[in-house]
Amino acid sequence: MKKVFYLNTCDTCRKILAQFDLSDWELREIKKEPITKEELAEMYMKTKSYEALFSKKSTQIKQRGLDVKTLTENDFKDLLLDHYTFLKRPVFLTDDRIFVGNDKKNVEALQEFFGVKL
């Protein structure tokens, strides 16, 4: 299994995805097809944290008046399933690896995984 969860309107996601040959990957645009409970469970098994999957930059945080510091793991899980913008993106998921988000360290790990020269 090789899946990429991304948002088509996100320039950063598109820029990251463009670096790799994803011809044998399942591409999931999360606004059109939100993540399922089963997929979130798969991600959790690899990260051991819903918070690690949670985007603290989501506009929904301010709109809903959420205080991220007070959220529990269960709150993160519920929010991730409730609205697509709470997922930190992109997420590259394989049978034994997960790459979450667009920070420099994660992108470098992805480049190494794909064998792309830095």
What is the strand arrangement across the widest sheet?
Answer: 2-1-3-4
Number of strands: 4
Element string (H = helix, E = strand): EHEHHHEEH
Largest sheet report: 4 strands, mixed
The CATH topology: Glutaredoxin
What number of structural domains do the residues give?
A: 1
Question: How is this structure best described in words?
Answer:
Belongs to the ArsC family. It holds the Pfam family ArsC. The chain has one domain: 3-Layer(aba) Sandwich (Glutaredoxin), CATH 3.40.30.10. The chain has five helices and four strands, in the order βαβαααββα. With 118 residues, it is α+β, with helices and mostly antiparallel strands. The model has no long low-confidence stretch (mean pLDDT 96).
